[in-house]
Structure prediction request, 24 residues.
Amino acid sequence: FLPFPWTLLDKLSALADKPEMPQS
Prediction:
């Protein structure tokens, strides 16, 4: 398992969930 796409997705998700998505 290469933690490459997962790390990028995690970072992208966190970044996309930070800007203007305070739904949580």
